[in-house]
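FW: tagging you since you asked about this chain on Friday. Here's the raw sequence from the shared folder, copied in full. Didn't touch anything.
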Amino acid sequence: MRWLLSTFLVVVATMLSTRGELPPYVYQELQAKSPEALTIKVESVSIVTSDESTLKRLTITAEARVEKVVRSASGLKSGDAIRINYVCLEHKQFIAGPSEPEVLQKDRSYPAFLVKAAQDQAYAPAARGFSFRSAN
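HL: got it, structure written out here
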């Protein structure tokens, strides 16, 4: 009986710590449900980096201009300026899991699937690693 309990606990612990990449249709659904579907041009990027024991945390703030609006729950229009805040984790060793949003680069245009954050009037990625690229 003790062996069975030990085996069960190991299996449960393994399941809780295992993460896998999401299938493409999940990213497509996240993009389809995102409140903001835009094309943006990044005007500036600020990155604050903190090293932790198993990863590097990048806290990113980007200022961007809306080039095109597919849909906008917050009423954005072409030409509007927006701020995008998000965190990107760079693991020091390979860990399988959902993809991280890419680090935006100044003077580049991106498709952007976003959600408006209530607390600071900024926007955040809505489709995980496919927030700034097409899932099609």
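FW: The mean pLDDT is 84.
HL: agreed, and The chain is about 20% helix and 40% strand.
FW: great, closing this out.
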